[in-house]
Write a structure and sequence with these properties.
By secondary structure, the protein is α/β, with parallel strands linked by helices. 35% of the residues lie in helices and 20% in strands. Helix 8 links the parallel strand 9 and strand 10.
């Protein structure tokens, strides 16, 4: 298990659709490197040099398989997701549907070990990846993507942003352990474009502080600072976090994000180009970016990044922004993911299955399985090249069939779906 090995063989959607059990279990681990994956939930208090944050950490481990991880066992969270997505539904209907979804899908098992006792062994220190979710997401919603990155020899901090973008999240009191719920912040109906941009800018400011908090926390862990986890006040798993000392590399940081998280990732790297090795933007939502960055004569963007654009996402203004940024980004790559809906990078279409995903409008046709796996492969390819410094990593021919260069033809095709 000592050496990570990049495995990018695509998981066939046609095979997955034959069995509901396969869809719900196997497809959450479509690609594996050389490590098993451990999972822990982490909430840190505010410190002198950093903000507080809440995250799920996916880390390489060489320990034996133990207690499995449930994808999302909390029916209340699923009910609130429905409430934020379908604001016209009464609360009781959301609660009933959330309970049904929790009973049916919430017990889906991720093939990893909850609180695996130690981080894996390696001749080199593990790089760190900060993952940023989109609107309606949380620390669990991108499990397939995050655990695949971890299995390839990275420690992934999947943030649960407390900016009002998650369906529901929490803040834990450092002294009492009492939890306060934070609910979704909905943009008021009829808001002007300027108000909407200011509204999202405030959320983006919170997100940027949380990304920076993870970067500072990684330094603390790497240097052996005594870790405090507000979700483990008794210190039952303190030794696990302490085992990260000397095993993670605070100088190899990168950011991956989907939708609103893509904007968060890009701006984090632009603000601190020497801190991060690069970023992966999974179908980024460019609207919240500061206006100077979206201008024709905006500043140079020299940080390496790759933007993965989902073909079925219909945001014409996104392409206008990207057209302006591309000439100013000499180290950037842009690709289009064929037949992909906006939520293709999340777990929703995989876990819920094609019929439910289509009914809830999470996926246009319910078959976002292959695009998810291709986006994982692209992420691993980028991280190996720019973070692990292993040069170009060739993708399998079957994967390349679903990817094409970002160009005029694919933009017109995507925009024509309005």
């Amino acid at each position: 298990m000592g050496t990570p090995g990049f495995v990018a063989a695509p998981y066939r959607a046609s095979d997955a659709l034959k069995s509901r059990k396969v869809v719900r279990k196997m497809s959450l681990s479509p690609m594996s490197g050389g490590y098993r994956v451990g999972v822990l939930d982490l909430e840190t208090p505010r410190a002198k040099e950093r903000s507080a944050f809440l995250a799920r950490v996916f880390y390489p481990t060489d320990g034996e398989a133990g207690k499995p991880v449930q994808w999302n066992p909390e029916g209340g969270v699923l009910a609130k997701y429905l409430g934020t997505t379908f604001s016209g539904l009464p609360k009781w209907a959301c609660a009933v549907l959330g309970w049904i979804l929790a009973q049916t899908y919430g017990k889906t098992v991720v093939p990893d070990t909850y609180y695996a006792p130690r981080i894996g062994k390696s001749e080199r220190k593990f790089p760190t990846v900060v993952f940023c979710h989109g609107l309606y997401g949380d620390r669990r919603a991108y499990t397939a993507l995050c655990r695949s990155i971890a299995s390839d020899g990275n420690v992934v901090f999947a943030l649960e942003h407390r900016d009002g973008s998650a369906p529901s999240t929490q803040v834990t009191d450092e002294i009492t352990g009492e939890k306060t719920q934070l609910e979704f912040r909905r943009l008021p109906k009829g808001s002007s474009t300027d108000f909407a941009h200011e509204f999202r800018s405030q959320m983006l400011s919170v997100r940027l502080k949380e990304v920076e908090a993870v970067a500072e926390y990684v330094k603390e862990l790497a240097n052996g600072v005594e870790p405090l986890n507000l979700l483990d006040l008794e210190g039952k798993y303190r030794e696990l976090l302490s085992s990260f000392a000397g095993k993670i590399d605070p100088n190899k940081l990168s950011v991956v994000g989907h939708s609103f998280g893509g904007t968060t990732a890009l701006l984090s790297c632009i603000n601190h180009p020497k801190r991060y090795s690069g970023c992966v933007l999974q179908d980024p939502w460019m609207f919240p970016l500061p206006k100077p960055l979206k201008a024709e004569d905006g500043p140079q963007v020299r940080i390496p990044f790759i933007a993965v654009l989902n073909e079925r996402t219909v945001w014409p203004e996104n392409y206008e922004v990207l057209d302006k940024i591309a000439p100013r980004a000499p180290n950037a790559e842009f690709v289009t993911l064929k037949s992909a809906s906006h939520q293709a990078q999340s777990d929703f279409a995989v876990v819920l299955g094609p019929r439910v995903a289509k009914a809830l409008k999470i996926s246009q046709d319910g078959e976002d399985f292959e695009p998810l796996y291709e986006s994982i492969a692209i992420s691993l390819m980028f991280l190996r090249k720019h973070v692990h410094r292993e040069g170009e990593v060739a993708l399998e021919p079957e994967i390349l069939k679903l990817i094409e260069p970002y160009g005029k033809r694919s933009r017109i095709l995507s925009n024509s779906l309005t």
